[in-house]
Amino acid sequence: MTFRGVAGELKSLGVRPSRNLGQNFLTDTGIADWMVARADIGPHDRVLEIGPGLGVLTERLARATDRLTVLELDRRLAENLRRKGLSVIQGDAMETELPEFDIAVSNLPYQISSGITLRLLDRGFRRAVLMFQKEFAEHLVAKPGDASYSRISVMAGYRSECSIIKQVPKSCFYPAPKVDSSIVEIIPRHPDFDIASEEGFGETVRILFSHKNRKARNGIMSEHEALGLGKDGARELTENLPHMDRRPITLSARELAEISNAINDIRNA
Ligand code: SAM
Q: 131 CB less than 6 Å from ligand 1?
């Protein structure tokens, strides 16, 4: 669909694109073709799309598989797709229970980038081809020590391989967003280290990254209560672990897991 086609269809539906819903619609159908081809969908794969909008990806996905689930929050857009013969669940992808799926293909609303990526990873799948704002994509693929390395780099990176596979300029959308986008491929994998408690690991990473430029030792001492440790326990930990003089932004997921496993041991002692 062209720029004019998207604007016209939205107008006829009485939809003024909402920034709060991240409604920037793809006008370059070549990008939609590319994403669906890259997702390498078999005819029996269970495919999930979040935020179909006017259906530029949806109609291509529906041709690739007969097992497509589509979730759209905006009621008017969901009804419009149903009128086109596509089956759509109207609901919030952050609250609706996600179905089992093999492959996800979506141009995501930027507000839920982080939360939905983690929700998808919790569910488990074979491959995802997802469009994000460029800056978020850079966070997702960042490695320890990179300028973009952050909590989401750890929480997605320890259980998947994330790669930027295409850059998409903002001129490919209506309305044009302020920033460019990137398409990311996510392939889940098991971490090659043990995590005693997934919940504890997530909490440790969250707390340490809220002090990401301080030495891990100082972050742990000042947040010992939030980490479920007494002062003595926190001291014991910081005296016995190797990475305590490093800043969290230089620690790998494996090193962060060593910290959270040690916290787990002290809490359960
Ligand atoms: N896939 C379409 C495209 O590429 O043109 C639209 C992409 S647009 C970036 C994001 C879409 O997600 C919009 O249709 C918006 O209404 C929908 N959306 C926003 N928040 C949502 C949520 N929490 N759950 C499901 N859909 C959501």
A: no
